[in-house]
Structure formats: structure tokens, C-alpha cells
Fold this protein.
Amino acid sequence: MAGNVFYWIVFVGTALTAIFAAVMVITRRSPIHSAMFLILNFLCIAVLYLLLNSQFIAIVQVMIYAGAIMMLVIFVIMLLNVEEEERRRKISASPAQIIGVVLVLILFAQLIYGVGVYVLPGEWSEFTRERITQIGDIKAVAGLLFTKFLFPFEVASILLLVGIIGAVILSKKER
Amino acid sequence: MMLSQYVPVLFIIGLGIFFAVFAVVASRLLGPRRINPAKASPYECGMITLGPTHQAIPIKYYIIAMLFLVFDLEVVFLYPWAVIFRTLGVFGFVEMMIFIFILLVGFIYIWKKGALEWE
């Protein structure tokens, strides 16, 4: 019982911090400040993954998203030098932003519908919470990734290869 | 709940925040503050910067970051593979070698292209 109360305190605290950070990301004028709040948001989501017994995803979330991808985002901000430009620009509703808001509302409605109507597969598939706790989260991920989802895994390497070649072609001048 | 296992992590995070806040607050409270123009300047020695300081950085930083990200992702796949390596056997070894080989092609490509050179 005490553990359950602790669980809920951690969940509500992390969820509210994540929402706060997300709001800060879209309201800050300086892109660097937005990026910092995005890191906070990613860390909160990592804690939410831990609450769902997904340790591997939580580690990847911290390492890849909060670490590597945010580093890339900050590099791009510095590369484009948007800092001064963004400060001067007035915030006003353009057609693109209105369409964006409508799309986000549709996505949100779908999420609410999906969570409300469907039972999430984790609860009724062979990988129940008890099973994951017993065999270990990483073994569960690995067992599926390298057998059932072998083809998507190998295709991922080609996707990474495309990323490498794209980065080189975009940034490297022919000599 | 398995959540109690993370209490040490929470403790470390708390300790980290405390240490950072303590260092700032303590130096603020204890240190004397006698400011003169030379002390308040961004660099005590050297020239005061002219013009905007937010300069666009060269693109060569970007490519290093991008390539780091790609090979970092490769390592993420190696981790679950290493955990069940023994149960997968030869089959697992071959599939990971294919994965690494495809990325090795990319590595040789960026090497030959000179993308890792700092000019």
C-alpha cells in the first residue's frame, strides 16, 4: 500500500513536470532554452518508462534522446544561428500554425480514444508485468528483437547507413 | 513494487542537485562582492568582443555529431544482443555480423570521403 502511494506520487510529479517542460519548450523565445526544457521533458519520460518496468527503453531514452539527439539539436541551433532572428520575430497565428493545432487536437482525440477503448497489449500478451519482472526487461526486448523482429532490425542498419551517407553529402564539399 | 530499487538513484539525483545549489548559494553568502568594471567584464584579460556573439558555427561540428549519433545507436543494439548472445548461438552471431557489416560499409565510406578529417 505504501509502495503504491509512492508510485503515484512519483508518477503524478513526473507527469506534471513533463507537461510543464513541454509547455516551456513551445513558449520560450530562445531556441537554446527550449532545447534545455526538451531535455527535462525527455528525462521525465525516461522516469515514466521506469514506472512501466521498461528499464531498457528508459536507458535508451536518456542515452539517445536526452544525450545524442539533443546534442545534435543544439548543434543545429548553433549552426543555423537562429538565436537573434527568433528574438525579433512576433508570435502570430499563421495558417500553418492553425493547421498544426487542428492536427494536434485530432491526434490527441485519437490517443484518448485509443487508451479508452483498447486494452494495451502489455497487459494481455505473454509479456505481462510479472513475466517482465521475472526474466528481465532487456532479455524480453532482445528475445523478440533478434528472432521475431529480425528483419526490421537488419533494415534499421540500412536506415542508419542512409543517415551516414545523407549527413556526409549534405555537409561535405567535393574536393 | 520494484520502484523501491530506484531510491538510491533518487538519492544520487538529490545529492547532485544539493551539491550544485549549495556551491552557488554558499559562495553567494560567504564570498565578498566588490565589483569593479574590470572584474565585471566577460574576460578579465583580452579584448572585449565586438558585434554579435552568437556566430554560426562551422558545419564540420554537425557531421561529427551526426556520425556519433549513428554509431551510438549501433551500440544500443549491441547491448540487448550481448545479454542473450549465448542463447542465440551462431544464428545470433551471424545476424549481428550482417548488421555491423552494413554499418561498416558506411564507416569505410565516411573514412574514404574524408569526413572524419578536421581541416
